[in-house]
Amino acid sequence: MKFRPTKKISTFYPPQRTLMGPGPSDIHPRVLSALSRPTIGYLDPVFVAMMDELKAMLRYAFQTANEVTFPVSGPGSVGMEICFVNMVNPGDKVIVCRNGVFGGRMIENVERCQGVPVVVDDAWGEPVDPNKVEDAIKKNPDAKILAFVHAETSTGVLSDAKTLCEIAHRYGLMTIVDTVTSLGGVPVKVDEWGIDACYSASQKCLSCTPGLSPVTFSDRVVEMVKKREEKVHSWFLDLSLLLTYWGNTTRTYHHTAPTNSLYALHEALLMLQEEGLERAWARHRRNHLALKAGLETFGLEFLVKPEYRLPQMNAVKVLPGVDEAEVRRRLLHDYNLELGAGLGDLKGKIWRFGIMGYSCKMENVMLCLCALETVFADMGVKVEFGAAEAAAYHAYAENPLPMRPSDAARVAVA
Q: What is the fold of 277-398?
């Protein structure tokens, strides 16, 4: 047939990479195994029971008692959109914080919902300034929502979500918070901080397959959606319709759920529960400190000040005179190691080292430092061989991990 491809196509086998970019992260064999389990119907009673377990484990990850907590079928961008399309009505004024790429995407979501964005800008690499936010709210007393990115993936900066939510609630605003890169890697405390709507992604610190976006909504968001005077401008993301499938009392058809991906998320969340949130946060911090110690021996500087740095997303300035794209190309070609490039205003100016989820481990940090050492030397950069690895080992020795909850329980019994 003339419509046949001219090139012979065979089974696709991807190379085995070490993923140390901005996402996705490496996937644990247990999670990969879960993907291959038999597909069953999305209304099968067994599957419905698994859905309830998924929701319970997501509540643990988000640290919330919100009933409306579930994974949306789609990546983190869909999680973002479900928050805005349900909460923003035409004409609503929304305070949006922009200190990187993903704050900019929030602005576009407001505009597409026919809302009115009031933009609070901060420099890329700086956290959201609470004083600027409060000033914007005072100048716009009719604003309904404050939206901001907790962990800005494009810069590796962490903003003070607790303070920002407190300011919003003091003036009667609801909050939409992006935790795509923070959930599972640093503290995210939805109930304690008073977050109204929060979304994340499966492929970052949760180390699951891409394509799912965990979300959680407070009761007052759900009530607000129920009282909307006009329909949500998306059938697929209409929260009131999705709850007919993910709700506690009903399980009616809405869309064909990605069953195998949900198996994988179930396994990833189970592993997070087994490790314990506090230990997961400490693991990301420990590997960050080791990576930082090694990178600094090359003369590399971090974009973000220490007190605002994300441990799982390390934005590092490119060495003067070094071709940043060639460094990434050689790491990928020679070592099967993926790093991230800069986005937007930071294109060509930074490398982004991701150590998220299953990628956040000593062997990845040491491989990265060893590979960088060789690549830099081959490109004419003066390096002291072995110094980066030694610095990392010292950092590991100085920062031991706490025990897993299960190990601590056994020790207590003994």
A: Aspartate Aminotransferase, domain 1 (3.90.1150)
